[in-house]
């Protein structure tokens, strides 16, 4: 990646330390959307944000917080990686609409409306029934639009996702998922959803999580870029990016927290198979964030132009953030 082209990863959740931040720099990442919540309540989220403040203090040469898209541009000039806070669940707002604006002031800029299960807002992708967006959800969507907090439907069910696209007056994202035609998985999205997302001006971040890829951990870079090419034909080049869903150095206990939270006494296997009871083996071409540039190489090899590669690797995210992170009327 050269010139002024910004490189952005639309989702990661790693066991953050200096080595990982150095890998981000080695991979040329100018910004990363990081997960600050799975099942945490408000107080627990605040503690997570406090830990991030300590990381900013300890590693100011490598990372910096992001409040606007221009902060990402500044991070690139400074040789640092901008950190964008996001929530993979709406649990920290509990049932209080005022929490949306308060969290936005704490630099929380992205929120999924559900994480696998039914939330107070909508259905998750593992639910058998999908009633769509709740009354509370209508109010949350309106408030997120007002303050400039991005709606993310990566782990939400189909009808709920389509309703969120319809109800939101601003484009939404699916930050880390893949097309259902590439791999049958509840987290992956139908062509109906992808078309609606593109038509509304939204953005899809392609996931590199092996359980959502054809051939799992053996998925080749060529197969991954073929998926991207087919999706670009469906959605258009301006509506796609990368959201790796990398979870580096995380212990099994973190996977169990992601799957079970506090809601289940028995082990939840996600897709229903004990074969995914542990972290998947890393992809050969994306073992750490330092390998992020391999995706660009694969896209070039697939036949994408330099401008198209730059769009997919980060510029689409940046242009989306230019508008999406601003409050209404700004």
Overview of this protein structure:
This protein is of the alpha/beta class and 330 residues long. It has a single domain, classed as Metal-dependent hydrolases (TIM Barrel, Alpha-Beta Barrel), CATH 3.20.20.140. It has eleven helices and nine strands. β4, α4 and β5 form a beta-alpha-beta unit. It is globular and about 45 Å long. The model has no long low-confidence stretch (mean pLDDT 96). α8 packs across α10 and α10 packs across α11. The strands form two sheets. Strands 1, 2, 3, 4, 5 and 6 form a six-stranded parallel sheet that branches.
Concise description?
The protein is of the alpha/beta class and 330 residues long.
How many angstroms does the end-to-end distance come to?
A: 31 Å
* Sheet/helix structural class: alpha/beta
Q: Please report the first level of CATH classification, the CATH class.
A: Alpha Beta
Number of domains: 1
Summary tags:
330 residues, alpha/beta, TIM Barrel, six-stranded parallel sheet, 9 strands, 39% helix, globular
Compile the SSE list and pairings.
Layout: E1 8-12, H1 18-26, E2 31-37, H2 42-58, E3 63-65, H3 69-78, E4 81-87, H4 98-105, E5 108-112, H5 135-147, E6 150-152, H6 158-167, E7 173-174, H7 191-199, E8 203-206, H8 221-235, E9 240-242, H9 252-260, H10 293-302, H11 306-324
Parallel strand pairs: 1-2, 2-4, 3-4, 4-5, 5-6, 7-8, 8-9
């Amino acid at each position: 990646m050269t010139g002024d082209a910004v490189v952005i990863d639309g989702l990661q959740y790693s066991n953050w330390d200096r080595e990982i931040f150095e890998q981000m720099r080695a991979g040329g990442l100018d910004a990363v959307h990081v997960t600050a919540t799975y099942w945490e309540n408000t107080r627990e989220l605040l503690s997570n944000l406090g830990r991030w403040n300590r990381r900013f203090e300890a590693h100011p040469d490598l990372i910096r917080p992001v409040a606007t898209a221009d902060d990402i541009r500044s991070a690139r000039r400074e040789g640092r990686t901008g950190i964008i806070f996001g929530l993979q669940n709406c649990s920290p707002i509990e049932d209080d609409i005022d929490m949306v604006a308060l969290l936005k002031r704490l630099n929380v800029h992205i929120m999924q409306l559900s994480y696998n299960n039914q939330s107070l807002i909508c259905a998750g992708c593992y639910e058998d029934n999908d009633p769509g967006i709740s009354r509370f959800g209508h109010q949350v969507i309106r408030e997120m639009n007002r303050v400039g907090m991005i709606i993310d439907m990566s782990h939400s069910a189909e009808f709920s996702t389509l309703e969120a696209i319809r109800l939101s007056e601003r484009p939404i994202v699916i930050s880390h998922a893949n097309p259902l035609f590439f791999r049958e998985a509840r987290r992956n999205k139908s062509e109906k959803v992808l078309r609606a997302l593109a038509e509304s001006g939204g953005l899809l971040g392609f996931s590199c999580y092996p359980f959502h890829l054809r051939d799992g951990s053996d998925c080749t870079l060529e197969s991954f870029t073929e998926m991207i090419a087919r999706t670009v034909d469906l959605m258009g080049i301006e509506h796609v990016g990368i959201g790796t869903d990398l979870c580096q150095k995380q212990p099994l206990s973190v996977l169990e927290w992601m799957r079970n939270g506090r809601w289940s006494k028995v082990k939840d296997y996600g897709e229903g198979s004990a074969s995914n009871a542990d972290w998947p083996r890393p992809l050969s071409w994306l073992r750490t964030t330092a390998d992020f540039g391999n995706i660009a190489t694969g896209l070039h090899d697939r036949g994408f132009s330099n401008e198209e590669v730059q769009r997919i690797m980060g510029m689409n995210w940046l242009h989306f953030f230019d508008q999406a992170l601003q409050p209404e009327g700004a």
